[in-house]
Design brief:
heterodimer, A: OB fold (Dihydrolipoamide Acetyltransferase, E2P), 6-stranded antiparallel sheet, 3-stranded antiparallel sheet, 9 strands, B: Aspartate Aminotransferase, domain 1, Aspartate Aminotransferase, domain 2, 2 domains, 17 strands, 38% helix, globular
Chain lengths: 128, 456
């Protein structure tokens, strides 16, 4: 498992989700803290491409050896891609939460929502 | 306070005093008066144990047990022989008394029984994953529908008219809550006639053999469903699966069914269990729990609950199933029965039924006033039409100690005088000959009466 880290180039949401913003698109995933709390992830229930997601609403589930947990959208938009490789290797979410363990790519409907997210320092402060 | 007697007046006032309430009545104050009965239950004075026994004995004598007549009743529950071995095992308190295992690994025996059961169901259905059982057949069919809906998010079920009426009713009840539409596929010569499906069909639900006893062409039905991107759900009678092509081989996605015929007596309709097996792709959406085999820290074989994460006691609002206590004891009877029969025994049993059913069908259709409702292949049950009022024919046969079968008219108005006849291994050739004689006489008598009435 990776060491704790909260990259500076990402935006964070209080439900332990991150977003990598790229213009009016974003990639979503869960933070190191979230994957650590979940334990070994055994299943990622991928949403369908084209699904609408809304900020603060659960858009999918991850299942770990401990529990099934909702994953919340840090921003609103439409799913344009899902990480297919997680179907066979869901543990990638534990091993590389910010890289190969990304969950979905989303075309944002309201890029101004980005301003409401936390940066790495702010997010880490919520973890104490 | 003792465990088995009610509280005394002193106990009661002490308890009420502790919580600061004046009367028991006050505890129900939150329930609107309009919803309350506003009177005492009309119960008679208390009876002694001996008096209760006598009363219950009198009530019990009003029922007719399948043991008291030569019964050809089936229609979903069947009079098979349950060997004494089953009771001798399931009545052990380790199996009989435990409640739902919230800490399941503590009971390795219980988990192993589940694991063996799942293996047997998986082999019978030809599908890779079986759960550790559900309540009973009809709710298993509905639960399978929910899995389909969850998988493809489509809005419609196509359910064959050959599916057990209770299952169809159960699917309709739950589909309503899921805001889904249910369309019925008709039967032609006893089997499901499936038209081209629209692309909003979530699942096609059929039964094997169907309610009229006919063996369905599952492969063709599953193909039609697959072409429309729908799942195929087959409600199966588990014993005939020993001879028929398995649902898995036919392309069925979910095979469910009533488990009563596996080692559970009729017991006036239950309890029994339902089985639920599916393809690997659907494992995460399956209801209930799955036991798995693993190795412990010392490398020894052990059993764990591999999957139960979507159960109601863990995540109530997101649960995909509500099966906690399950029917583990009835399912245990099922796996004991299958082990008792063995791989060869189950085939021999079903072949025996097949032969006797063929004999019975042949005998009955040669009776004047009897025609077949369909001529499809059958395993243990077949449907006939009587040229006489079926209820009266049944009553006449019952006077001879024979229950000739299930009158279809209640569920199928189109077969007003239809009769569904089931032949288990408990019905001998002599029993079938008696049935044929009783039916011949009863139909002839009713037709004479009918003719007389018509003349008068």
């Amino acid at each position: 498992m990776a060491d704790p880290s909260y990259p500076d180039d990402l935006k964070y949401y209080q439900e332990h989700d991150w977003a990598r913003i790229d213009g009016d698109s974003a990639t979503f995933g869960i933070t190191w803290y979230a994957q650590d709390a979940l334990g070994e992830v055994v299943f990622f229930d991928a949403p369908k491409v084209g699904a609408e997601v809304s900020k603060g609403q659960a858009y999918t589930e991850v299942e770990s050896v401990k529990a099934v947990s909702d994953v919340f959208a840090p921003l609103s938009g439409e799913v344009t891609a899902v990480n297919e490789s997680l179907a066979d290797k869901p543990e990638t979410i534990n091993e590389d939460p910010y890289g190969e363990g990304w969950l979905v790519k989303v075309k944002l409907t309201d890029p101004s929502e980005v301003d409401s997210l936390m940066d790495s320092t702010e997010y880490q402060a919520t973890l104490d | 306070m003792t465990r088995y007697t009610s509280v005394t007046d002193a106990d009661l006032s002490e308890m009420l005093g502790t919580i600061g309430v004046d009367s028991v009545e006050e505890l129900f104050a939150d329930i609107p008066a309009s919803l309350r009965m506003q009177r005492e239950l009309s119960l008679g004075p208390g009876l002694s144990e001996q008096e209760v026994y006598e009363e219950l004995k009198t009530l019990a004598a009003r029922s007719t047990s399948a043991e008291d007549e030569v019964s050809f009743l089936g229609a979903g529950m069947y009079d098979h022989y349950a060997p004494a071995l089953i009771d001798s095992i399931i009545l052990r308190s380790e199996f009989l008394t435990p409640y739902t295992p919230y800490q399941p690994e503590i009971s390795q025996g219980g988990l192993q029984a589940m694991f063996e059961y799942q293996t047997a169901i998986s082999e019978l259905t030809g599908l890779p994953v079986s759960n550790a059982s559900v309540y009973e057949g009809p709710s298993a069919v509905a639960a399978a529908g929910y899995v389909a809906q969850n998988t493809n998010d489509r809005k419609r079920f196509v359910i064959s008219r050959g599916v057990h009426p209770h299952s169809r009713e159960c699917v309709r009840t739950l589909a309503h809550a899921w805001e889904m539409d249910v369309v019925e596929a008709p039967l032609t010569n006893g089997v499901t006639a499936l038209e081209d499906l629209t692309d909003d069909v979530s699942a096609v639900i059929v039964q094997q053999p169907n309610f009229l006893g006919a063996v369905e062409d599952l492969t063709s039905l599953a193909n039609t469903a697959k072409q429309a991107g729908a799942l195929t759900i087959a409600a199966c009678d588990p014993l005939p699966l020993a001879l028929l092509k398995t649902p898995g081989e036919c392309g069925v996605d979910i095979a469910v069914g009533e488990g009563q015929t596996l080692g559970n007596r009729l017991d006036f309709g239950g309890p029994s269990f339902g089985f639920f097996a599916a393809t690997q792709a659907l494992v995460r959406r399956m209801p209930g729990r799955i036991a798995g085999e693993t190795k412990d820290i010392d490398g020894k074989r052990g059993f764990v609950l591999t999957l139960q994460t979507r159960e109601q006691h863990i995540r109530r609002e997101k649960a995909t199933s509500n099966i906690c206590t399950a029917q583990a004891l009835n399912a245990l009877a099922g796996v004991i029965y299958l082990s008792w029969l063995g791989r060869r025994g189950i085939v021999e049993l079903v072949e025996l039924m097949l032969q006797r059913t063929a004999y019975a069908r042949d005998r009955l259709q040669s009776i004047e006033g009897v025609t077949l409702i369909h001529d499809q292949p059958v395993v243990r049950e077949f449907a006939i039409n009587l040229d006489a009022p079926v209820q009266r024919v049944v009553a006449r046969c019952q006077e001879q100690g024979i229950n000739p079968g299930y009158a279809l008219g209640r569920d199928y108005p189109e077969y007003e005088n239809g009769l569904l006849v089931a032949i288990t291994e408990r019905r001998t050739k002599a029993d079938i000959d008696r049935l044929a004689d009783a039916l011949t006489a009863a139909i002839a008598a009713e037709r004479t009466t009918g003719t007389r009435k018509a003349r008068a």
